[in-house]
Every structure is written in structure tokens, then in C-alpha cells.
Design goal:
5-stranded antiparallel β-sheet; alpha/beta; 7-stranded mixed β-sheet
């Protein structure tokens, strides 16, 4: 007999347990009732078992009710649940027991475990490819953080059963043991696709609003502050053409660039207040007093107009004003409107309509409403409101139907038939003794007006901070090299040690080059911002341009011991039509950034690829990848914007204006291309841009006589080996490879090579030492060419003494290889020589006329020209140059002509020379030498009869290139 509470009853405990287990399994209490009836229990025992059954029935009912609540909640919120038991150390082990709720499957269009099994891969395999890595990393990070401080809360896209992608919000929490190890994780998934789409719609609306604001015409002005008397009438002021036009003037003759041109036209009642406000802004050295004022001016024809003016001041370190830049806008009509309307009417940017509550007739509309509806105020007065807003033909849904309309989305039928979406609110008020409805609506964004104003204020504040930070950085970038220039100049002047002088001069040049880069960036961004940035298309050799860009940046690569690889597989001499200078500028910006942000001994890869297009049109794709510091997602969002930098502090580690990428994007956009970035923080970055180009000529750069020649390459770099061999063997020539000097000696002893190319740094012997052994010991007759990523002027003497015949700089371009081999095979006297510097021989004995009014500029040009062996005559202005040429026109082979000079400028001098009837006057090359480097400046030189252009400050290599083109 079993006992319960010391009460004896028939039946065993096993039978009691079996009855309860059956109840728990089936949920039916009949199993207990049946047991009670057959067991013959006494009253107390039966009562105990009956109470147990009742309790279990209650638990089952509560569980069913909770399940029903969960399902109702999940269905209402569109939420699916999941949980996973974690076994072992790998948080993403596919074998972990995973449970997906039916609601989870339903969100993705699945029904049961048959088509969506309870495994991790059912979910992870449906992650969007661009989201997958990020999501799995976040999930693993949450599970492995034993502190529990890393949340799992993020948004991503999942592929539905029908193949569509939708956006979901996922979050979860984890149960951990006492050591923080994850034991079980559970979470939820919510469909937020519609919310995301609405947010994107709102962002596009914001962009349209921003573009609308930018389209307003605003006139600019600029002044360098006279500290002695800032308000003196004769102080120089720059007034834009738009400013003059607003007042009815045309040029400087009737509206000179002085303060009094403006101040004398201020209305008497406004003059003192306006001038006091301007002076207060200037004299507040803290910069806290804004210049933002409305005043009236008298136009040329006497009409009085109202203007809104505002400005910002550039100040020195002590806060004293140096320069003010500002803008003015004609707000006459707005001022008149503000005077006529009530306060609400004046300040509202929404469309506002007053409607008679009894007749539904329009009583009045504000200008915004009239504009949105597409009619004049007079056209709208008296119309029934339902003709515009409502489709109902019965009573008023607001007044009669008692419907509440507060920021609801509706449609507005314009008078021209166009239907636009609006956000509308209606309020019934007492106006002028009668009941009216005030309807307000906007067509730009479905969020509260207060929120829009707050966002606008935040954007304005952020813009101000951004530009302030930018100006601080620019000031830093200008002052730093200027400090170096001034300081090193002092050291050079005071030092008697030659090496110390050379060191100081070298640093001065580095600082000057940096300063020139800053100036160029600022000028370029200024042109872009003002809409005056233009492209100049020409035909050019793409690989030659690419080689020049790489060469310019190579010294910084060498200084940081970085590995720069150029991948450009091109067997033809590719000539394209594009803006050579601007394309080179984009590539150089990306390459110099890669060098700057890649640590010492890091790697950089520049890849160029030409994709075929329609006809002569093709797509040129260029990418620059580095192993540098990378760029975070937050930094990427503002990277291509003007006045924005990834890190804006003036004490930042890497320096620079931060304008290079904004300029590059503007150039690529103007070329009809696109630029993109792929990067992760601390994992490097890859910038890629693609532009359409026109291919003009693609002649083979390899001669047919290459067949049968044999080349030996002694090179340690596998990439160079593959590239070299592909160029050689593509045209049925033979290329043998040796990894070191030992292998090369063995090959040379048994083969007759046309040429031997040797890497400067071999693992067992230097390139020059190997060349010496080949020439002196083995009697090699074939030419030896040194490949090196070091500067030639550093290794020149060593290589020449060793018997090297030529030098090719790394990274190697196919044209370098081909030109060298062609020189060996076909023109050894002309096309094949040791490239140890510029070829001055062709300039020797030629006569050049240098026209330059500034003495120091003449000295610099003369110093640059001295190594060429040319005979140089000088003239101090255009009139002197014209006189010298008229006396002996046959003497001169070329004229270097400055543009801005006294007495007679370069443009006029060039025109006068071309008009002469003397022999050679029409054909002598005239090359402009000027700091005016914009496209319109170069076009002006050409229009005056000049042939070419050399920009100041003078670059020696560029000067030689241009002179070589015409001599």
C-alpha cells in the first residue's frame, strides 16, 4: 500500500505518477479521473489527487492564455522570435540547437521547418551579401563579450522566400554563467522595411529643400580691412557683378570698388545703424558679434529697395579683423509682404488658407498657398475649398463629419491639374466675428514644423562649425610651411656652412611645394564652389601621363620604404581624349593620400583598366588600394564634401587641407564619371573612379622584329617577373627569369641574350656589382639595364662605373620596357642611352628671349635654363621684347613671355609680334610664362597668339618638356 500524508490508499506510487504523466502529456484530466475511480482511494487521498489535477489544469490554462497573448502581440507588431542554445566555444557553430518561431518564418514567407529548418544557416544564408559580414561579426561580438556590455541591436536586410529583400530590426539578450560565458541567447526580429523606405523618402525631401535654397540668387562682397579706419569711404571693397546689377549698375566705372559706393547709397534713416553694426562686428575681437542686418539702399534710378546683408570675418591670432566676406540679398518684396500680413501670416512658410466655415468659400490665401496651388490670390478667392482639397461632394468632412485633421497626408489638386502630396492640418477658429477654418499645409516633409526648424538650425550650426574648423586647418596649413620658409631662410642666410645652407634650402623647397599645393587646393575648391571650374579636353598618351604621376609621388614612397605596384596591362600605345591635367590631378590626389595614410613599409597598388564601350567611347577605370589606416563608416559619410575632413583638428597627425577628395569628386563628376570608396578602419582603403573617354589611336608599341630575341630578367619580385615576361612573350620573344645573381650567371654562360635586365637589390649581389662582373669578368657584350626603385641620381655613378648601359625606374611601365628594347634593336645611337638626367644636347646653342619684369623671376628662369646651354637675352617688358625681336628676328628660336608687365603686357606684345611682316614673326614659338593657370587664362594666351604655357612657380621638368615640344 502507498501512503500520502500518512493516509493509506490502494494503488502504487508508480501508478499515481503514471496517471499524472499521462495527464501532462495529453492535457486531458480524464486520466486522473479514471485512476481515482478505479483506485478506490479514501476521501483525503482522492482529494489530494483531485487538487493536483485542478492545479495542473490551471497551469495549462495560464500557459495557453500566455501563448495566445504572445501570438497576438507578435502578429500585431510584426515580430518573430528565436533562441539558440550555445554548445562549445564557437558562437556561430551551425550545429547549435536553434529555434525559429512560426511568426519568424512567416515574416520571411516560410511555413514550417520543412522549408526553414531550425538551424543557424536558415537565417545566415539569407542575409544580404553587403550586410552578412557586419551582422555575423556583431552577433559573435555580443556572444563573446563576457561583460555583457556589447549589445545585439542592429538593422539588416534578409532575402524572402520570393527572392525580395526587406529590412529588419533585430535585437537579443543572452543568458550567461557566473563567468560570463554565453549559455543561451534569445531575441526578436521586426519588419521595419516601410519605416526605412519612409526615412529615405524624408531624406530625399530634405535634399530637394536644400537645392531649392541654393537656387536663390545672392550677391557677394569682399573687403580687406583697413585697421586704421575701417569705415573710410575710399577703403577698397570688392563688389560682385551681381551686387552692382541689383542696384542697377554695370561696372566699376559707375560703381567703383570702394566702401562709399555702397555707404553713400544707404537711406539716411538706416545709414548710421548699418555702419555701427558693421563696425561693431569688426571690432568685437571675440568674434561673438554677428553681422546680420536689414537695411535700405537707393538704386541708380532712385528706387528704394530693402536688402538683407550678412558676413563673416577672418581674424588674426589676436582677434583683429583682416578680411570680411559677405553676401546681400534683395528682400524688398518680402519686407512689403511682412508689413501687410498678420504675424502668423508673415512668418509661416506653410501654405495658409482661411475658409468660411458656413459657405466653405476661400476668404484669403498666403503667398505660399497660392504658389503651391498654382494660382494667384485673386483666382483663389471665393473658390470652394473642396475644389482643391476634398473629393467629397457632400458636407464638409471637418465641420459636418467631425473628422480631426492634424498633420495628415492628403492630396492637393493644383489649378493646372497636377496632384501633389501635402501634410495638412485644420483648426476651426473665430476670425473677424465669424467662424472660419484655418488650413495649413506643406509639401516637403511629413514631420512637425518645429522638428524641421530644429533640424535646419542644427544643420546651420554644424555648417558654421565645419567651415570654422576648415578655416582653422587652412590657417594651420599655410602658417606651418611659411614658418619653415622664414625660419630656414634665416638659417641659410646666417650660416657659413655649405651643407647647412643646402639643408635649409632643401627644407625651404619642401615647404614651398607644400604651400603651393595648399594654394592650388584652395583655388580649385573656390572655382568649384563658384561654378567656374572647367575642363580642357585634349589628346594625350595615357601611359606617359600615368608614368609622370607615379614619378612625382615616387620620392615619398621611397622615403617611407613602401611597396608601390602599378598594374596597367596594355600592349598598345593608348591615346585618349580627356582633360589630361585634371585626370592626373585626381590620380595624384588618390595616390598621395594612399602614401600619406599608409605606414612605412606598407603596400599600395594603382590599377588602370580600359573597358570597351560603344565606338570610340570607352570607360577608363582606375583604383588606388592601400594597406593604411582605413576610414570608418562615419568618416566616409563626409569624406567627399567640401570643407569636410575625416579628422578636422589642426593637430591631426597627417596634415593636409582635406580638399583633395572633394576636388577629385567634382572633377570626376564633371567628366561624367563616378568615384567610390571601400574601406574598414585599420584595414586599408580602396578608392575607385571610372570616367568615359574617347580612344583616338591604339597603335602597337612592339615591333615585329622582336620575334626571336632573348631577354634575361634578374628580379626578386614575382609581380615584376610576371609583368615583364607577359610583355616579352606576348610578341613571340623569349624571356628567361633568374631570381638571383647565381642563377643568372648559370643562364648567361649557356645562352646568348639580346639584353640583360637586373634588379638593383638582389638577395646575393647588388645590380651594379653583378653588371661589373658580367662586363669585366664574363665579357658580356649585351646591354645591361638596371631596374631600381631608388632615385637615379643616387645610384648613377655606381651604375655607370659598373658598366650599366641604361636605367628603368620602378614601378615599371610597359612603354619603358618596349622603348628600351626598341632602342637596343633598332636605334642604339638615338633611342638607347643611360637615362641619367635631362637631354640638354638638343638645346645647346639655341637662342631664347626671356621677357619678365620681376628681377628675381628672371634670375630663377636664367638659373633653370643655364644647364641647357641656351643663349638667353632678357627684356623687362613687352615693349622691350618687341624692340629686340624687330632688330634681329632671326636671332631667336623661342620667346618666353610673362603676361602681366608694365608698359606693355605679354598679351599685347604677342599680338604685336604676330602682326609684324618680318620673317619668322608668324612662326616663332611664344610660350606664356605666368602664374595665371586657369583654363580661361590659358585660352586668353592662345587667343593672343601664344603657342604654349608654363605656370608659375616654375617647375624645371615641366619647363624642359614644354621647351622640348617647340625646339
Amino acid at each position: 500500500m502507498a501512503s500520502l500524508d500518512n493516509k493509506e490508499f490502494p494503488g502504487t506510487s508508480e501508478e499515481v505518477i503514471a496517471a499524472l504523466e499521462q495527464y501532462l502529456e495529453t492535457g486531458e484530466s480524464t486520466s486522473i479521473d479514471s485512476f481515482l475511480s478505479t483506485a478506490g482511494l479514501n476521501g483525503d487521498s482522492a482529494k489530494v489527487l483531485q487538487l493536483l489535477g485542478d492545479a495542473l489544469d490551471g497551469i495549462s490554462a495560464a500557459a495557453s492564455f500566455d501563448l495566445m497573448k504572445y501570438r497576438l502581440t507578435s502578429d500585431a507588431l510584426g515580430i518573430g522570435l528565436w533562441d539558440m542554445v550555445i554548445e562549445g566555444e564557437n558562437p556561430l557553430n551551425p550545429s547549435h540547437p536553434f529555434t525559429w518561431s512560426d511568426e519568424f518564418r512567416a515574416l520571411l514567407g516560410f511555413e514550417d521547418t520543412g522549408d526553414f529548418p531550425d538551424i543557424l544557416a536558415s537565417w545566415s544564408d539569407r542575409l544580404h551579401p553587403r550586410d552578412k559580414g557586419r551582422v555575423l561579426n556583431a552577433f559573435a561580438a555580443h556572444l563573446t563579450d563576457r561583460t555583457g556590455k556589447t549589445p545585439y541591436d542592429l538593422e539588416y536586410r534578409l532575402k524572402l522566400k520570393n527572392g525580395d529583400y526587406r529590412t529588419f530590426h533585430a535585437f537579443g539578450t543572452t543568458m550567461r554563467d557566473e563567468r560570463g560565458k554565453a549559455l543561451r541567447v534569445a531575441g526578436a526580429l521586426q519588419d521595419i522595411d516601410e519605416k526605412v523606405r519612409m526615412q529615405q523618402h524624408l531624406e530625399r525631401s530634405d535634399l530637394r529643400l536644400e537645392l531649392l535654397l541654393k537656387s536663390r540668387e545672392i550677391a557677394l562682397w569682399d573687403v580687406s580691412v583697413n585697421p586704421a579706419d575701417p569705415l573710410a569711404g575710399n577703403n577698397e571693397f570688392w563688389w560682385s557683378d551681381k551686387f552692382r546689377a541689383l542696384l542697377g549698375y554695370t561696372d566699376e566705372n559707375d560703381f567703383p570698388n570702394i566702401l562709399s559706393s555702397w555707404s553713400d547709397r544707404l537711406i539716411a534713416e538706416d545709414k548710421q545703424t548699418t555702419l555701427d553694426a558693421f563696425l561693431a562686428h569688426l571690432m568685437d575681437y571675440s568674434g561673438n558679434t554677428p553681422y546680420d542686418i536689414t537695411y535700405r539702399l537707393s538704386k541708380k534710378d532712385g528706387e528704394i529697395r530693402t536688402f538683407h546683408a550678412f558676413g563673416a570675418t577672418l581674424r588674426s591670432a589676436d582677434g583683429s579683423p583682416e578680411r570680411v566676406v559677405g553676401a546681400v540679398e534683395d528682400v524688398t518684396e518680402q519686407a512689403k509682404l511682412l508689413e501687410r500680413l498678420e504675424a502668423t501670416w508673415r512668418y509661416s512658410e506653410s501654405g495658409l488658407i482661411l475658409i468660411d466655415a458656413e459657405t466653405n468659400a476661400i476668404i484669403d490665401v498666403n503667398p505660399s498657398a497660392a504658389r503651391l496651388i498654382g494660382g494667384s490670390r485673386e483666382e483663389l478667392l471665393g473658390k470652394k475649398c473642396r475644389q482643391i482639397f476634398c473629393s467629397e461632394r457632400g458636407g464638409c468632412p471637418i465641420r459636418d463629419g467631425h473628422l480631426e485633421t492634424n498633420r495628415t497626408e492628403q492630396e492637393l489638386a493644383r489649378l493646372d491639374g497636377e496632384v501633389i502630396s501635402i501634410i495638412k492640418s485644420v483648426a476651426q477658429i473665430n476670425f473677424d466675428g465669424r467662424e472660419v477654418m484655418l488650413e495649413s499645409f506643406i509639401d516637403i516633409s511629413p514631420y512637425k514644423e518645429a522638428e524641421k526648424q530644429k533640424r535646419a538650425a542644427e544643420i546651420a550650426e554644424q555648417t558654421s562649425k565645419t567651415k570654422s574648423a576648415f578655416l582653422a586647418n587652412i590657417s594651420h596649413e599655410i602658417r606651418t610651411p611659411m614658418n619653415a620658409i622664414i625660419g630656414m631662410s634665416t638659417i641659410a642666410l646666417e650660416s657659413e656652412d655649405t651643407e647647412r645652407k643646402d639643408y635649409a634650402v632643401g627644407k625651404i623647397k619642401e615647404a614651398a611645394d607644400h604651400l603651393l599645393g595648399v594654394i592650388n587646393d584652395v583655388l580649385d575648391i573656390s572655382k568649384i564652389e563658384s561654378g567656374k571650374f572647367e575642363l580642357s579636353l585634349s589628346e594625350f598618351d595615357f601611359e606617359a601621363m600615368l608614368s609622370r604621376v607615379v614619378t612625382i609621388n615616387q620620392h615619398r614612397v621611397l622615403d617611407k620604404q613602401q611597396n608601390l605596384t602599378v598594374v596597367f596591362d596594355n600592349s598598345k600605345r593608348l591615346r585618349i581624349v580627356s582633360d589630361e591635367h585634371r585626370l592626373a590631378q585626381v590620380i595624384s590626389n588618390l595616390l598621395s593620400n594612399a602614401v600619406k595614410f599608409t605606414p612605412d613599409k606598407g603596400s599600395i597598388t594603382l590599377t588602370a583598366r580600359l573597358a570597351e564601350g560603344e565606338g570610340a567611347r570607352s570607360t577608363l577605370e582606375i583604383s588606388v588600394a592601400d594597406s593604411g589606416i582605413g576610414i570608418s563608416l562615419e568618416q566616409q559619410s563626409r569624406l567627399f564634401q567640401s570643407f569636410q575632413q575625416a579628422e578636422s583638428s589642426t593637430t591631426r597627425k597627417y596634415g593636409g587641407t582635406g580638399l583633395g577628395l572633394a576636388i577629385s569628386k567634382s572633377i570626376v563628376d564633371m567628366m561624367g564619371g563616378r568615384i567610390s570608396l571601400e574601406s574598414e578602419l585599420n584595414k586599408g582603403a580602396t578608392f575607385t573612379f571610372a570616367i568615359p573617354v574617347q580612344c583616338v589611336d591604339e597603335k602597337s608599341i612592339v615591333a615585329p622584329e622582336w620575334r626571336g630575341i632573348r631577354i634575361l630578367l634578374v628580379e626578386r619580385d614575382v609581380g615584376v617577373q610576371d609583368f615583364f615576361r607577359e610583355i616579352i612573350e606576348r610578341h613571340e620573344a623569349t624571356c628567361d627569369i633568374a631570381l638571383n645573381a647565381k642563377e643568372a650567371f648559370e643562364l648567361i654562360s649557356g645562352e646568348d641574350y639580346t639584353a640583360v635586365f637586373i634588379d638593383y637589390l638582389l638577395p646575393d649581389l647588388s645590380g651594379p656589382d653583378m653588371a661589373r662582373l658580367l662586363k669585366d669578368k664574363m665579357g658580356l657584350k649585351a646591354p645591361v639595364i638596371i631596374l631600381a626603385d631608388a632615385k637615379w641620381d643616387i645610384i648613377k655613378n655606381e651604375a655607370l662605373d659598373a658598366g650599366a648601359d641604361a636605367f628603368i625606374a620602378k614601378p615599371v611601365f610597359s612603354s619603358n620596357i618596349v622603348d628600351t628594347i626598341n632602342g637596343i634593336l633598332f636605334d642604339p645611337d638615338k633611342g638607347f642611352s643611360v637615362k641619367h638626367g635631362a637631354d640638354f644636347e638638343k638645346f645647346k646653342g639655341l637662342h631664347l628671349l626671356l621677357v619678365e619684369d620681376v628681377e628675381v623671376n628672371r634670375e630663377i628662369a636664367m638659373a633653370f635654363l643655364e644647364p641647357t646651354g641656351m643663349v638667353v637675352d632678357c627684356a623687362c617688358n613687352g615693349k622691350e621684347a618687341l624692340s629686340l625681336f624687330e632688330k634681329d628676328p632671326a636671332r631667336y628660336d623661342l620667346i618666353l613671355m610673362d603676361v602681366q608687365m608694365p608698359v606693355m603686357d605679354g598679351y599685347e606684345a604677342a599680338r604685336c609680334i604676330r602682326k609684324l611682316s618680318l620673317e619668322g614673326a608668324a612662326s616663332i614659338p611664344i610660350v606664356a610664362l605666368t602664374a595665371n593657370v586657369f583654363k580661361e587664362d590659358i585660352d586668353k594666351c592662345v587667343a593672343a597668339g601664344m603657342n604654349g604655357h608654363i605656370g608659375k612657380p616654375i617647375n624645371f621638368d615641366e619647363m624642359l618638356r614644354v621647351l622640348g615640344e617647340y625646339l
